[in-house]
Specification:
2 copies of one chain form a homodimer.
Chain A lengths: L1 E6 L8 H13 L3 E7 L1 H7 L6 E5 L10 H7 L4 H10 L5 E4 L3 H12 L9 E8 L2 E8 L9 H18 L6 E5 L10 H11 L5 E6 L11 E3 L2 H27 L2 H10 L1 H11 L7 E4 L5 E3 L6 H16 L2 H10 L2 H11 L1
Parallel strand pairs in A: 1-2, 1-4, 2-3, 4-11, 6-9, 7-8, 7-9
Antiparallel strand pairs in A: 5-6, 5-10, 10-11
Helix pairs in contact in A: 1-11, 3-5, 4-5, 6-7
Function (chains A, B): Catalyzes the reversible formation of acyl-phosphate (acyl-PO(4)) from acyl-[acyl-carrier-protein] (acyl-ACP). This enzyme utilizes acyl-ACP as fatty acyl donor, but not acyl-CoA.
EC number (chains A, B): 2.3.1.274
Pfam family, one (chains A, B): FA_synthesis
Chain lengths: 343, 343
């Protein structure tokens, strides 16, 4: 039985949508047990039944605006910290929260801890691609804004195992986001990243890629430093949302003909909305830790929570963490060489 | 009379669409004289009349795949280099090409040269915003991938003058692209950029901004290093294009009802296409040089060429370069202080 420790108080719609999503997942998946940390009175009143669900009382909540390091340090009885601690103690296999992103990352790093050999964990998100269903996976989406060559090198390996094990992509293509596709493109550090990645025979490195082609499926995994990755992720999200809003506004303000047109186009528009809905891939995962640490957006509803539970179940079942541990324990010299080359 | 030196051989549709676009602009704008550099036989055969158009023979062409620095050095009789040289010699006021981007930047920097006090020029592009017509202006879009604090500081000033003088935005808002809006966000260099920008009373600095909100009009000018700017620009372009293609595919493959729907929605879809069409703002401008150096996409058609000529006329008429020269000649100490602070 897989055990997932869930911060039931994190996010704008907690605990209601968290509990609802957990029940949806529980009714579909047999091999998962849920540990819900939070206000037990509230949670119990929301549950329709407690089959494979344990409710654990926590007296504090880390708020969205709390300073992450201080919050994790000070609020030891918060649902977020208690859920992370359950993983650390071995009573759960994964930690999931829709709460304060910074606090989730800090709790993952400080409480659950890194896999030996990994210098900095990386945050990944899987986003849609027009012509396939496996999307593309972006790492790092913002855990590490000051990335060194060795960090990005490790992200490529983490991305490879995630795409292979969890998304079931055979020999996934790994591309480095750069300002052109030629091998000498980019600033000094990105040129060094290219060199390091092209020397690793364990990954299917396809070279430099431009962010323009990501939604067209030019790669399975896009690796980048956390600063660029964050800007790319938010640019894609913002543009997609703005275009959908423009279409909605155009339909609403376009008179009868336009409303009729939208009605006739309903299936097409629904398909596009479904295609662009990246919550179907679950949440963002902090990779490189001893157990999966997963966050989904603060505004998540039950469906996203359900999808994220499915994702976590796949991460655990695939033994992603075991594969990564195995690789890094056998490649310590390789990492040392890259660090030396950087100096 | 404003004189624009144009590389008539640059781009995928040269010289035909360049000549066509120049004639469109010439028929609308009275105060511009055009100097077309290229194969004079071809160009002359395409021109319907030569009013305010001079054709200057050039025997070479810089190709899209040529290595920029070598091409500018070796192909002195190319249309691109000759057009840039016309500006350097004072026989033209601006240089425009749809050709090899790298070669345009190199020719601008090496032949036309920087304004005194500006360390590195920055490439700007104006992109659409849903709820206004002035869009937002992104600087640097990729001229300088290894940006220092002083470069981004200067981009903010260049962006301010461009938005104020050319786009006629009163007291334009300047935001720094970062991975969060709080003042301490970002990696070390972005934290220093924030500090420097917040100390300049000559700009309306609104602080850190996230790329998610750019199309929603959160700022008039978005400043960033050229690596991030390039990734943001290409992410926005790629996402917008992918979504439009998805809609088109959905309509084409959606049967009769969907085609009827599209017909009824035609005006709405046209409005969105017009809104997202950023060629209406002209091309990308390399700012910080002694004269405007403007490039538009290699695939540009006549309408984009026409729009870019309008943009160049506005840059010259507004005396953008004069205002920038004036600011930087009076603020040399300020730039020195920022460079000292960076060490």
């Amino acid at each position: 039985m897989i055990k997932i420790a869930i911060d039931a108080m994190g996010g704008d719609n907690a605990p209601k949508e968290i509990v609802k999503g957990v029940e949806l997942a529980r009714n579909e998946i047999d091999n998962v047990e849920f540990q819900l940390f939070g206000d037990s009175t509230q949670i119990n009143s929301l549950l329709s039944n407690k089959k494979r669900i344990k409710v654990i009382q926590s007296d504090e909540v880390i708020k969205m605006e709390d300073e992450p390091v201080r919050a994790v340090k000070d609020k030891k009885n918060s649902s977020l910290v208690m859920a992370a601690r359950a993983v650390k103690d071995g009573s759960a296999d994964a930690f999931y929260s829709c709460g304060n992103t910074g606090a989730i990352l800090v709790a993952g790093l400080l409480i659950i801890g890194r896999i030996k050999g990994i210098d900095r964990p990386g945050l990944i998100t899987t986003l849609p691609v027009i012509n396939n269903d496996t999307g593309f996976t972006l790492i790092d989406c913002g855990a590490n804004a000051d990335a060194k060559v060795v960090n990005v090198y490790q992200y490529a390996l983490l991305g490879k195992y995630y795409a292979e094990k969890v998304l079931k992509i055979n020999n996934p293509r790994i591309g480095l986001i750069n300002n052109g596709t030629e091998s000498d493109k980019g600033n000094k550090i990105h040129q060094k990243m290219y060199q390091a990645l092209s020397q690793n025979d364990d990954i299917n490195f396809i070279g430099n890629i431009e962010s323009r082609g990501l939604l067209d499926g030019i790669t399975d995994v896009a690796v980048t430093d956390g600063f660029t990755g964050n800007a790319v992720l938010k640019s894609i999200e913002g543009t997609a949302l703005s275009m959908i809003n423009m279409l909605k506004d155009g339909i609403i303000n376009g008179g009868f003909g336009s409303k009729m047109g939208a009605l006739l186009l309903k299936d097409t528009l629904k398909k596009i909305a479904h295609k662009m809905d990246y919550t179907k891939y679950g949440g963002a995962v902090l990779l490189g830790l001893r157990a999966p640490v997963v966050k989904s957006h603060g505004s998540s509803k039950a469906k996203t929570v359900r999808n994220t539970v499915v994702q976590i179940e796949q991460i655990i079942t695939s033994n992603f963490v075991g594969s990564v541990k195995n690789y890094f324990s056998n490649h310590t010299d390789e990492m040392d060489d890259i660090k030396k080359g950087e100096q």
